[in-house]
Amino acid sequence: MCTAANYTAKDHYFGRNLDLEYSYREAVTVTPRNFPFEFRRVPSLKTHHAMIGMATVADGYPLYYDATNEKGLSMAGLNFPDNANYKPVSEDGTNVASFEFIPWVLGQFETVAQVRDALSDVRIVDLAFSEEFPPSPLHWIISDRDESITVESVDEGLKVHDNPIQVLTNNPTFDIQLFNINNYMSLSVDPPEPRFSKEIPFDTYSRGLGAVGLPGDLSSMSRFVKAAFTKVNSVSGESESEAISQFFHILGSVEQQRGCVRLDDKYEITIYSSCCNTHKGIYYYRTYENSQITGVDMHKEDLDGSELASYPLVKSQQVLMQN
Ligand SMILES: C[C@H](CCC(=O)NCCS(=O)(=O)O)[C@H]1CC[C@H]2[C@@H]3[C@H](O)C[C@@H]4C[C@H](O)CC[C@]4(C)[C@H]3C[C@H](O)[C@]12C
Fold this sequence. Notes:
By secondary structure, the protein is α+β, with helices and mostly antiparallel strands. Helix content is 15%, strand content 32%.
Protein backbone atom coordinates (compact mmCIF):
# COMPACT_ATOMS: atom_id res chain seq x y z
CA MET A 1 0.00 0.00 0.00
CA CYS A 2 1.09 3.48 -0.54
CA THR A 3 -0.18 6.97 0.05
CA ALA A 4 0.70 10.20 -1.77
CA ALA A 5 -0.29 13.70 -0.65
CA ASN A 6 0.11 17.42 -1.28
CA TYR A 7 0.28 20.20 1.28
CA THR A 8 0.58 23.95 0.82
CA ALA A 9 1.89 26.36 3.44
CA LYS A 10 4.08 29.19 2.08
CA ASP A 11 5.57 26.70 -0.37
CA HIS A 12 3.96 23.63 -1.87
CA TYR A 13 5.01 20.12 -0.80
CA PHE A 14 4.46 16.78 -2.53
CA GLY A 15 5.39 13.34 -1.25
CA ARG A 16 4.42 9.78 -0.53
CA ASN A 17 4.78 6.73 1.67
CA LEU A 18 6.21 3.73 -0.15
CA ASP A 19 4.69 0.72 1.58
CA LEU A 20 6.10 -2.61 0.56
CA GLU A 21 7.74 -5.73 1.94
CA TYR A 22 10.97 -5.47 -0.10
CA SER A 23 13.09 -2.81 -1.74
CA TYR A 24 14.32 -2.24 -5.29
CA ARG A 25 17.57 -0.42 -4.30
CA GLU A 26 15.83 2.93 -4.59
CA ALA A 27 17.93 6.10 -4.31
CA VAL A 28 17.24 9.84 -4.44
CA THR A 29 18.12 10.65 -8.03
CA VAL A 30 18.59 13.95 -9.85
CA THR A 31 18.24 13.90 -13.63
CA PRO A 32 19.84 17.01 -15.18
CA ARG A 33 18.51 18.78 -18.27
CA ASN A 34 20.86 17.14 -20.77
CA PHE A 35 20.53 13.53 -19.68
CA PRO A 36 19.21 11.92 -22.90
CA PHE A 37 15.80 10.40 -22.17
CA GLU A 38 15.27 7.64 -24.76
CA PHE A 39 11.70 6.36 -25.06
CA ARG A 40 10.55 3.21 -26.87
CA ARG A 41 7.73 4.57 -29.06
CA VAL A 42 7.75 8.37 -28.63
CA PRO A 43 10.48 10.82 -29.59
CA SER A 44 13.35 10.96 -27.12
CA LEU A 45 13.99 14.10 -25.07
CA LYS A 46 17.62 15.17 -25.58
CA THR A 47 17.03 18.15 -23.35
CA HIS A 48 14.21 18.59 -20.86
CA HIS A 49 13.30 19.93 -17.43
CA ALA A 50 15.57 18.66 -14.65
CA MET A 51 13.93 16.50 -11.97
CA ILE A 52 14.56 15.01 -8.54
CA GLY A 53 12.87 11.99 -6.99
CA MET A 54 13.12 8.42 -5.84
CA ALA A 55 14.26 5.94 -8.48
CA THR A 56 15.86 2.62 -9.14
CA VAL A 57 18.67 3.29 -11.58
CA ALA A 58 18.89 0.33 -13.98
CA ASP A 59 21.33 0.25 -16.90
CA GLY A 60 21.88 3.97 -16.38
CA TYR A 61 18.14 4.75 -16.66
CA PRO A 62 16.20 6.33 -13.74
CA LEU A 63 13.03 4.29 -13.09
CA TYR A 64 11.20 6.90 -11.02
CA TYR A 65 8.64 6.05 -8.33
CA ASP A 66 7.90 9.72 -7.61
CA ALA A 67 9.58 12.96 -8.69
CA THR A 68 9.30 16.74 -8.99
CA ASN A 69 10.68 18.83 -11.83
CA GLU A 70 12.39 22.22 -11.70
CA LYS A 71 9.07 23.93 -12.59
CA GLY A 72 7.34 22.47 -9.53
CA LEU A 73 5.30 19.78 -11.31
CA SER A 74 5.22 16.48 -9.38
CA MET A 75 4.11 12.93 -10.04
CA ALA A 76 4.01 9.59 -8.21
CA GLY A 77 3.11 6.03 -9.25
CA LEU A 78 1.15 3.91 -6.76
CA ASN A 79 0.20 0.26 -6.95
CA PHE A 80 -3.09 -0.40 -8.76
CA PRO A 81 -3.29 -4.21 -8.99
CA ASP A 82 -5.99 -5.89 -11.11
CA ASN A 83 -7.25 -2.50 -12.33
CA ALA A 84 -4.29 -1.19 -14.35
CA ASN A 85 -4.63 -2.27 -17.95
CA TYR A 86 -1.80 -1.19 -20.25
CA LYS A 87 -2.51 -1.36 -23.96
CA PRO A 88 -0.70 -2.96 -26.88
CA VAL A 89 1.36 -0.54 -28.97
CA SER A 90 -0.79 1.03 -31.68
CA GLU A 91 -0.20 3.06 -34.84
CA ASP A 92 -2.39 5.78 -33.35
CA GLY A 93 -1.74 8.09 -30.47
CA THR A 94 1.23 8.69 -28.24
CA ASN A 95 2.48 5.33 -26.97
CA VAL A 96 4.18 5.81 -23.59
CA ALA A 97 5.38 2.79 -21.56
CA SER A 98 4.42 2.81 -17.88
CA PHE A 99 8.07 3.10 -16.77
CA GLU A 100 8.50 6.13 -19.09
CA PHE A 101 5.42 8.00 -17.94
CA ILE A 102 7.03 10.02 -15.11
CA PRO A 103 10.05 11.28 -17.13
CA TRP A 104 7.89 11.87 -20.22
CA VAL A 105 5.51 14.12 -18.23
CA LEU A 106 8.00 15.86 -15.95
CA GLY A 107 10.53 16.30 -18.77
CA GLN A 108 8.15 18.47 -20.81
CA PHE A 109 5.40 20.08 -18.77
CA GLU A 110 5.09 22.77 -16.10
CA THR A 111 1.45 22.60 -15.03
CA VAL A 112 -1.33 20.09 -14.54
CA ALA A 113 -3.38 21.97 -17.17
CA GLN A 114 -0.69 21.30 -19.79
CA VAL A 115 -0.54 17.62 -18.81
CA ARG A 116 -4.32 17.28 -19.00
CA ASP A 117 -4.24 18.57 -22.61
CA ALA A 118 -1.32 16.37 -23.58
CA LEU A 119 -2.99 13.24 -22.20
CA SER A 120 -5.86 13.36 -24.69
CA ASP A 121 -4.13 10.98 -27.12
CA VAL A 122 -1.78 9.12 -24.75
CA ARG A 123 -1.89 5.32 -24.48
CA ILE A 124 0.03 3.70 -21.63
CA VAL A 125 1.50 0.69 -23.42
CA ASP A 126 2.50 -2.67 -21.98
CA LEU A 127 6.22 -2.61 -22.81
CA ALA A 128 8.68 -3.91 -20.22
CA PHE A 129 11.83 -2.03 -19.27
CA SER A 130 13.63 -5.37 -19.09
CA GLU A 131 13.08 -8.97 -18.03
CA GLU A 132 14.06 -8.01 -14.51
CA PHE A 133 11.65 -5.05 -14.52
CA PRO A 134 8.33 -5.94 -16.22
CA PRO A 135 5.51 -3.36 -16.19
CA SER A 136 4.12 -2.68 -12.70
CA PRO A 137 0.36 -2.11 -12.30
CA LEU A 138 0.25 1.57 -11.31
CA HIS A 139 -1.95 4.62 -11.29
CA TRP A 140 -0.54 8.11 -10.91
CA ILE A 141 -1.13 11.41 -9.14
CA ILE A 142 0.15 14.52 -10.94
CA SER A 143 0.21 17.83 -9.06
CA ASP A 144 1.26 21.42 -9.26
CA ARG A 145 0.78 24.01 -6.55
CA ASP A 146 -2.86 24.57 -7.46
CA GLU A 147 -4.38 21.26 -8.51
CA SER A 148 -3.99 17.50 -8.86
CA ILE A 149 -5.22 14.84 -11.26
CA THR A 150 -5.26 11.07 -11.04
CA VAL A 151 -4.47 9.10 -14.19
CA GLU A 152 -5.67 5.49 -14.55
CA SER A 153 -5.19 3.23 -17.58
CA VAL A 154 -8.08 0.78 -17.21
CA ASP A 155 -10.05 -1.59 -19.47
CA GLU A 156 -12.04 1.30 -20.98
CA GLY A 157 -8.93 3.39 -21.75
CA LEU A 158 -7.08 6.28 -20.10
CA LYS A 159 -9.08 8.03 -17.38
CA VAL A 160 -8.05 11.41 -16.06
CA HIS A 161 -9.85 12.36 -12.83
CA ASP A 162 -9.68 15.74 -11.13
CA ASN A 163 -8.38 15.07 -7.65
CA PRO A 164 -9.71 17.85 -5.40
CA ILE A 165 -8.46 16.11 -2.25
CA GLN A 166 -4.90 15.87 -3.61
CA VAL A 167 -4.37 12.47 -2.01
CA LEU A 168 -3.96 9.07 -3.66
CA THR A 169 -3.75 5.54 -2.25
CA ASN A 170 -4.36 2.24 -4.07
CA ASN A 171 -7.42 0.23 -5.11
CA PRO A 172 -10.25 0.58 -5.92
CA THR A 173 -10.52 2.99 -8.88
CA PHE A 174 -10.37 6.66 -8.05
CA ASP A 175 -14.04 7.41 -8.78
CA ILE A 176 -15.00 4.93 -6.05
CA GLN A 177 -12.45 6.35 -3.59
CA LEU A 178 -13.87 9.80 -4.13
CA PHE A 179 -17.47 8.63 -3.77
CA ASN A 180 -16.65 6.79 -0.54
CA ILE A 181 -15.64 10.08 1.09
CA ASN A 182 -19.36 10.96 1.16
CA ASN A 183 -19.77 8.46 3.99
CA TYR A 184 -17.57 10.62 6.21
CA MET A 185 -19.00 14.09 5.55
CA SER A 186 -20.22 14.50 9.14
CA LEU A 187 -16.76 14.02 10.68
CA SER A 188 -15.33 17.14 12.24
CA VAL A 189 -12.31 18.49 14.07
CA ASP A 190 -14.76 20.19 16.46
CA PRO A 191 -16.69 18.56 19.32
CA PRO A 192 -19.94 16.99 18.08
CA GLU A 193 -23.41 18.45 18.62
CA PRO A 194 -25.66 15.73 20.02
CA ARG A 195 -28.22 15.01 17.27
CA PHE A 196 -28.72 11.33 18.08
CA SER A 197 -31.62 11.96 20.47
CA LYS A 198 -32.74 14.68 22.83
CA GLU A 199 -33.69 11.95 25.31
CA ILE A 200 -30.13 10.78 25.96
CA PRO A 201 -27.76 12.85 28.14
CA PHE A 202 -24.62 12.73 25.97
CA ASP A 203 -21.29 13.58 27.57
CA THR A 204 -18.43 15.02 25.49
CA TYR A 205 -16.02 13.00 27.64
CA SER A 206 -12.98 13.20 25.35
CA ARG A 207 -11.30 15.46 22.84
CA GLY A 208 -11.55 14.22 19.25
CA LEU A 209 -15.12 12.92 19.47
CA GLY A 210 -16.01 14.88 16.32
CA ALA A 211 -14.02 12.41 14.22
CA VAL A 212 -15.28 9.16 15.74
CA GLY A 213 -15.77 6.86 12.75
CA LEU A 214 -12.59 7.98 10.98
CA PRO A 215 -11.01 4.72 9.80
CA GLY A 216 -7.77 3.67 11.45
CA ASP A 217 -7.02 0.43 9.61
CA LEU A 218 -4.42 0.07 6.87
CA SER A 219 -6.60 -0.85 3.88
CA SER A 220 -6.29 1.50 0.93
CA MET A 221 -9.85 2.88 1.16
CA SER A 222 -9.40 3.58 4.84
CA ARG A 223 -6.00 5.22 4.29
CA PHE A 224 -7.55 7.43 1.63
CA VAL A 225 -10.16 8.74 4.11
CA LYS A 226 -7.68 9.08 6.99
CA ALA A 227 -5.06 10.88 4.89
CA ALA A 228 -7.73 13.13 3.35
CA PHE A 229 -9.10 14.13 6.77
CA THR A 230 -5.61 14.81 8.12
CA LYS A 231 -4.49 16.68 5.03
CA VAL A 232 -7.52 18.93 4.51
CA ASN A 233 -7.56 19.89 8.19
CA SER A 234 -3.80 20.35 8.50
CA VAL A 235 -2.50 23.55 10.02
CA SER A 236 1.13 24.61 10.34
CA GLY A 237 3.37 27.65 10.43
CA GLU A 238 4.90 28.74 7.17
CA SER A 239 8.56 28.05 7.91
CA GLU A 240 10.24 25.16 6.09
CA SER A 241 10.74 23.31 9.35
CA GLU A 242 7.09 23.65 10.43
CA ALA A 243 5.71 22.79 6.98
CA ILE A 244 7.81 19.67 6.40
CA SER A 245 7.15 18.50 9.96
CA GLN A 246 3.42 18.81 9.29
CA PHE A 247 3.80 16.99 5.97
CA PHE A 248 5.54 14.02 7.62
CA HIS A 249 2.75 13.95 10.22
CA ILE A 250 0.16 13.73 7.42
CA LEU A 251 2.01 10.74 5.97
CA GLY A 252 2.59 9.39 9.48
CA SER A 253 -1.19 9.18 9.99
CA VAL A 254 -1.27 6.31 7.44
CA GLU A 255 2.15 4.70 7.81
CA GLN A 256 2.57 0.94 8.16
CA GLN A 257 4.19 -0.57 11.24
CA ARG A 258 6.00 -3.88 10.76
CA GLY A 259 3.80 -6.70 11.97
CA CYS A 260 0.36 -5.25 11.13
CA VAL A 261 0.04 -6.39 7.49
CA ARG A 262 1.30 -9.93 6.87
CA LEU A 263 2.23 -11.16 3.40
CA ASP A 264 3.19 -14.87 3.72
CA ASP A 265 6.47 -14.78 5.64
CA LYS A 266 6.99 -11.00 5.33
CA TYR A 267 5.32 -7.82 6.59
CA GLU A 268 4.57 -4.67 4.67
CA ILE A 269 6.25 -1.56 6.09
CA THR A 270 6.62 2.07 5.11
CA ILE A 271 10.03 1.76 3.47
CA TYR A 272 10.34 5.51 3.03
CA SER A 273 8.27 8.67 3.37
CA SER A 274 9.18 11.59 1.13
CA CYS A 275 8.35 15.28 1.09
CA CYS A 276 9.57 17.47 -1.76
CA ASN A 277 9.51 21.26 -1.54
CA THR A 278 8.38 21.67 -5.14
CA HIS A 279 9.41 25.31 -5.27
CA LYS A 280 12.94 24.83 -3.97
CA GLY A 281 13.56 21.38 -5.47
CA ILE A 282 14.59 19.90 -2.12
CA TYR A 283 13.66 16.24 -1.61
CA TYR A 284 13.38 15.24 2.06
CA TYR A 285 12.86 11.68 3.22
CA ARG A 286 12.72 9.37 6.22
CA THR A 287 13.08 5.59 6.16
CA TYR A 288 11.53 2.89 8.34
CA GLU A 289 14.57 2.76 10.58
CA ASN A 290 15.81 6.32 10.21
CA SER A 291 13.39 8.83 11.69
CA GLN A 292 15.74 11.73 11.02
CA ILE A 293 14.80 13.84 8.00
CA THR A 294 17.49 13.69 5.30
CA GLY A 295 17.47 16.08 2.33
CA VAL A 296 18.89 16.35 -1.19
CA ASP A 297 18.83 19.74 -2.95
CA MET A 298 18.49 19.46 -6.69
CA HIS A 299 19.97 22.91 -7.23
CA LYS A 300 23.26 21.82 -5.66
CA GLU A 301 23.80 19.57 -8.70
CA ASP A 302 24.92 20.66 -12.17
CA LEU A 303 21.47 20.83 -13.76
CA ASP A 304 22.95 21.60 -17.19
CA GLY A 305 24.92 18.36 -17.09
CA SER A 306 24.06 14.98 -18.58
CA GLU A 307 24.97 12.59 -15.73
CA LEU A 308 22.54 11.30 -13.11
CA ALA A 309 23.34 12.06 -9.46
CA SER A 310 22.13 9.30 -7.16
CA TYR A 311 22.10 9.31 -3.36
CA PRO A 312 21.59 5.91 -1.68
CA LEU A 313 19.18 6.20 1.25
CA VAL A 314 20.60 6.79 4.72
CA LYS A 315 18.80 3.94 6.44
CA SER A 316 20.32 3.64 9.89
CA GLN A 317 18.75 5.39 12.87
CA GLN A 318 20.40 8.72 13.77
CA VAL A 319 20.07 9.09 17.52
CA LEU A 320 21.06 12.39 19.15
CA MET A 321 22.33 11.56 22.63
CA GLN A 322 21.91 14.48 25.02
CA ASN A 323 24.22 13.46 27.84
C1 LIG B 1 5.12 -1.39 -5.55
C2 LIG B 1 5.39 0.12 -5.53
C3 LIG B 1 4.17 0.82 -5.02
C4 LIG B 1 3.98 0.53 -3.58
C5 LIG B 1 2.56 0.25 -3.33
O1 LIG B 1 1.65 0.94 -3.77
N1 LIG B 1 2.33 -0.84 -2.59
C6 LIG B 1 0.99 -1.24 -2.28
C7 LIG B 1 0.78 -2.71 -2.51
S1 LIG B 1 -0.93 -3.01 -2.54
O2 LIG B 1 -1.59 -2.11 -3.44
O3 LIG B 1 -1.43 -2.87 -1.22
O4 LIG B 1 -1.05 -4.39 -3.03
C8 LIG B 1 5.74 0.65 -6.92
C9 LIG B 1 5.85 2.20 -6.94
C10 LIG B 1 6.87 2.54 -8.04
C11 LIG B 1 7.19 1.19 -8.68
C12 LIG B 1 8.53 1.08 -9.43
C13 LIG B 1 8.61 2.15 -10.51
O5 LIG B 1 7.45 2.12 -11.34
C14 LIG B 1 9.88 1.98 -11.34
C15 LIG B 1 10.08 0.55 -11.89
C16 LIG B 1 9.16 0.28 -13.08
C17 LIG B 1 9.38 -1.11 -13.66
O6 LIG B 1 8.47 -1.32 -14.69
C18 LIG B 1 9.18 -2.15 -12.56
C19 LIG B 1 10.11 -1.92 -11.40
C20 LIG B 1 9.99 -0.50 -10.79
C21 LIG B 1 11.19 -0.36 -9.84
C22 LIG B 1 8.64 -0.33 -10.03
C23 LIG B 1 8.47 -1.39 -8.91
C24 LIG B 1 7.20 -1.22 -8.08
O7 LIG B 1 6.06 -1.44 -8.86
C25 LIG B 1 7.11 0.22 -7.51
C26 LIG B 1 8.23 0.36 -6.47
